[in-house]
Structures are given as C-alpha cells and as structure tokens.
Amino acid sequence: MPTDGHQACANAGATDRSTQLKPPAQLDFDATNLADSWKRWKQELELYMDLAMSGRDETSKVKLFLYLVGSRRREVYDTMAFEIPASERTLTQVLEAFDGHCNPRKNESVDKIEKELLAVVYGFERLHTYTYGREVFVESDHKPLEVIFKRPLHRAPKSLRRMLMRVQLYDVSLAYKKGSTMYLADALSRAYLPYDGSQDVASEIESINMTQHIRLKPRTLQEIKEG
C-alpha cells in the first residue's frame, strides 16, 4: 500500500493509463508488404504488453496474441514446430516463430545457410579418404556458419541438425573468411566436375571413427598420423 499522497496519485495515474490502453487491431496478413506491416504491428503489440500486461503470465500473453492474429493464423500456429509444450511457450518464442511466416526474406536466409552447410558436408564426404581421421580447417564466406559451428548441436536450427551430425564424423574447425579473398574456392566453383553418386544412409549410420576408440596414447597416435 502507498504510504503518502504522492505515491497514491502516481499509482492511480498508472492505473488510469493502463485501462485506457487498447491492444493493436488485427493484422491484415493479406497486406501487400506483409513484412513491414508485421514489423510495425509487432512493435505496437510489444509496447502494449509492456504497459498493460507487464504483470501477467506468458500464457495469457500468448493467448491474447493468438486472439489478435485471427483463426486462420491460429491454424498456422498449430502447424509450427516448437521444442517445448504449448503451456511453457513465451510470447517472445511465438513471435520469433511468426517472424519467419511473415518475412519470406528471412526464410530465404535460412535456405542460404542450408546450402552453404550442405557444401561443407559434401566436401567432407566427397574427400572422405583425405578428411577422415585428420584435423581439417574450413574457411567459409558465410558468417552465420561460423556461429552455428560454435554452438552445441541441440541449439542449432532443426533444419541443420541432420547435416551437422554428418559433419561430426570428422575433426573440423570452421572460420569465416571474406569471399573476395578466397581465390581458390572461387575458381573451383567455376570448374566443378559432375557427380551423380550419393552416400548410403546405412554406411552413414555404421561409420565409426576408430581414432576415438583405439587404445593408444595421444602422442603415439599423433606420431602414426604424421608418419
């Protein structure tokens, strides 16, 4: 309870302002420029949540958001993949999921990362005889890959985990390098050889890195590699 008149007036004023606040109107998902409309609407929603629902739990905030987006987008929400049950999802997590739905350019960025990672996986598997059992340093002109390689596997995007698991067979370190300075890779990309083979899933599952299980001291194993 407030102990003085000034505090009581301040609390009353805050209460009046919160009751006058209204949530943003329903977003028109059929707008010509949906990405920009979504960005503005999202800012209005977050401002409303901070001012009017700061003390409410995340479940209530998510329910209000789903009401505002309408029945069609609630159906889209039901098809989205989350790593946690619905009762534990926060508004931030739900908004991030809708970011990709409302911003096609963001989806294109994800596709770009997948292609860049696939190129790394292809290089290792294609040159398996030379890369297996050896420490390999990869340079990529795609900055997000460097960040993804430093994360634990469970924190990587779901669409990339399968390929990252294939790379775990190898001892690989990846770092970013500006594309304009990667002269050899640029030349090879213009003179590639056709390849129509594919690695069998069974061989992928059965592959074992024997250097991780052999009973030799690290120093002895290193001498064998160098020899």
From TrEMBL:
Domain (Reverse transcriptase RNase H-like): residue spans on this chain: 110-167
SUPFAM superfamilies (alphabetical): DNA/RNA polymerases (SSF56672)
Region feature (Disordered): 1-21
GO molecular function: endonuclease activity; hydrolase activity; RNA-directed DNA polymerase activity
Matches recorded under InterPro entries: DNA/RNA_pol_sf, Retrovirus_Pol_polyprotein, RT_RNaseH
Record keyword Nuclease present: yes
Keywords assigned: Endonuclease, Hydrolase, Nuclease, Nucleotidyltransferase, RNA-directed DNA polymerase, Transferase
The organism's place on the tree of life at top rank: Eukaryota
Keyword Transferase belongs to the record: yes
The protein, known as: Retrovirus-related Pol polyprotein from transposon opus
Organism, as annotated: Stylophora pistillata
